[in-house]
Design a protein that fits this description.
The protein is an alpha/beta fold and 355 residues long. The protein has helices spanning 23-30, 38-44, 46-49, 57-74, 92-101, 118-131, 149-164, 181-186, 194-210, 235-244, 262-279, 293-310; strands at 8-13, 81-85, 106-111, 138-141, 171-177, 215-220, 249-253, 282-285, 330-331, 347-348. It is globular and about 60 Å long.
């Protein structure tokens, strides 16, 4: 596969602590500038201490890196792969410096966040801009992939398998990370609400493909002031409502996450499962794509697609459902944060048309 003009791939992720002593410093990185007291961070850190003070996200990224290198080798893609995080070692800045030292001139960036929002897209692009300030490496972010077959397919497969052994009347609950409603309204551009609509589209596709007769969308991991409106319903509240309506069995599908990191193993496998057990609900949580071969192949395909675009060649942009393939560049007003006006990579002056 021709990957010119790129001479590297950069895996871009959130990061997470790997030792108990890393937990609070990691949370200080995540919440920098928000004035959150250390006592509150120590309280939030208890989620990590339940799992030995170690987030699974870095190990999951290592698995994905190994799978990507194997896939590249099997498909004749001779390209080095680097890894950088926003909030913990290995940091994006260090990854950019290493690429420059290795002679990399232009790298494609695969971000482990599939959807549009400030925290899931624009903030990554801000951090990528910062990481290359004074460093001679050009970075190009690969497009959002929420509606790519390599992302939708593994969820459909896992949901189908769960429903095959579930009792009749099982309700499928799709779950993603909640965000403030103001952030949702700004996602994709002012008033576009792309974050919510993208998830609704993916949920509908997976439900149809898996043959789910009853399904809904819920949210997890809400944080911040209780006076600020966030997307609802919360997964725990939703399970209680389903129970009141007579539901006896649920299959939970974490479509907002590419791998089983902290929001999945704590918010769903721990808290939501405990709520279901309290209610007497049968509870099953399906796997995220992780290093599924179709998901890994998708990353290679997105790389080849973007490389062809950069060479000025025609290319088929694969997308499922009712939303077209997302553009390579984001509009300058996409996913704005009223508290931030930092420069980003990967933006241009245009408007995304109606889905």
């Amino acid at each position: 596969m021709d990957v010119r003009p790129f001479d590297a791939l950069l895996l871009v992720s959130f990061g997470g602590p790997e030792r108990p002593e890393d937990v609070v410093p990691f949370l200080e990185n995540v919440t920098a500038g928000r004035g959150i007291p250390r006592e509150r961070l120590e309280e939030v850190g208890q989620h990590y201490f339940l799992f030995g003070g170690r987030s699974p996200i870095n190990d999951l990224n290592r698995e994905l890196l190994d799978a990507l290198r194997e896939d590249f080798a099997a498909n004749g893609v001779d390209l080095p792969i680097y890894w950088g995080n926003r909030n913990w070692d290995p940091y994006l800045r260090d990854a950019a410096a290493q690429m420059a030292a290795d002679g990399v001139q232009r790298a494609a960036c695969f971000v482990t966040s599939a959807y549009s929002s400030y925290s899931g897209c624009r903030q990554y692009r801000e951090d990528l801009y910062d990481a290359t300030t004074g460093v001679q490496v050009e970075l190009s972010r690969l497009r959002h992939y929420f509606n790519h077959p390599g992302f939708v397919g593994p969820f459909t497969e896992a949901t189908s398998e769960a429903l095959a052994t579930a009792p009749a009347g099982t309700h499928v609950v799709f779950v993603t990370h909640s965000i403030p409603t103001s952030m949702n309204e700004a996602s994709g551009g002012p008033g576009r609400e792309a974050y919510q609509r993208q998830h609704e589209s993916v949920a509908a596709m997976v439900a149809e493909g898996a043959g789910a007769e009853q399904w809904s969308l819920a949210y997890c991991s809400r944080s911040g002031s209780p006076h600020m409106p966030w997307l609802e319903p919360d997964i725990n509240d939703h399970l209680r409502e389903l129970h009141r309506q007579g539901t006896e069995s649920v299959v939970v599908v974490p479509i907002g996450f590419i791998s089983d990191h902290m929001e999945v193993i704590f918010d769903l496998d721990t808290e939501a499962r405990a709520t279901a057990e309290e209610l007497g609900l049968r509870f099953e949580r399906v796997e995220t794509p992780g290093a599924h071969p179709d998901f890994v192949a998708m990353i290679r395909e997105l790389l080849g697609e973007r490389a062809a675009v950069e060479r000025g060649e025609p290319v088929e942009r694969v997308a499922l459902g009712d939303i077209p393939a997302w553009p390579d560049l984001c509009p300058t007003d996409c996913c704005l944060n009223p508290r931030s006006s930092k420069p980003t990579i990967g933006s241009a002056d245009f408007a995304i048309g109606p889905a």
